[in-house]
Structure formats: structure tokens, C-alpha cells
Amino acid sequence: FIMGGNENNNNTNANNNNNADAPKKVFVQRDYTHGTDCKFETNYPTQLEDVIPRETFTDTVNKINELFGRSEELDCHNYTEGCVSCMTGYLLYFCIETKYAKEMKQISLFIQRQNDEIYHPRGVHIVEPMLRGLRCIELIVYSKPHKPI
Prior knowledge:
This protein is an alpha+beta fold. It has helices spanning 9-21, 54-71, 76-87, 99-119; strands spanning 24-29, 124-127, 136-141. It is elongated, with a radius of gyration of 21 Å. The longest helix is centred in the C-terminal third of the chain and has 21 residues, at 99-119. Helix content is 43%, strand content 11%.
């Protein structure tokens, strides 16, 4: 929504009050210091001070990093899954769920639990990294505690 020019001062003051109540977005970027593995920075954003304790935030990001690390591990199961899917013309994927898809569900469940138990009561919402193309973790900070519908 884009507002037109400022016709009078009353509109300007109303807009400034609305902006104060607008949620703030904080982005935790990918960490490429160890290659292209899906890992996010654990630096504590200053926008979360007095909202979320530093160790809580760090524990959450570390657990997300751990879950993504597990999803990208190569093991016998992955190789077998790849070979069998190739031999069946990839029809296997109509019958089973891949290890990667299962891990993505685990990450979604973890973030949902964290939101429900820790972040929502404090007025913060974590957006799943999968919805942002695995580029970042987005945190939305509301001025008042928020519980999504």
C-alpha cells in the first residue's frame, strides 16, 4: 500500500504512529565460511535485545543448522535411494518420501514448536528458511506479543 502526498499534518502523524506499530523484520543470513552447506550465522541481532535471550536465539539457530546438516549427509540410504530411483525411472518418488523431504518436515516442526513455546509469547515469529529459498532465517518482531491465526 503506497500513500500519496502529505495533504496535512494530521495524516503525517497518523502514518508515523502506524509505522511505530508495524512489525520489524530481522534477517539471519547464510554462513558461507565453511562452504555452501546450508548453515546460518549465529551472530545475535541487536534488534532482538530485550526480546529474546541471546542463548535462546543461539540454541535455536544451532539446532536449525544441525538439522540442515543431517539433511545433507550422504550415507548408504541416500545412495541406495538414488540408484533405485534411477533404475525405476524416478517412479520410486511416487511411492516413498525422500530422506531430505523427511528432514525438511522435521525442521518445519522444530520451528513451529519454537514459535509456539518460546517466540510467539515474546512477540517474535520465525519464518521457515524454506519459504525464503534457504537464503536466510527471517524473524518478525511485533510491538506486542502476537499469536498467528
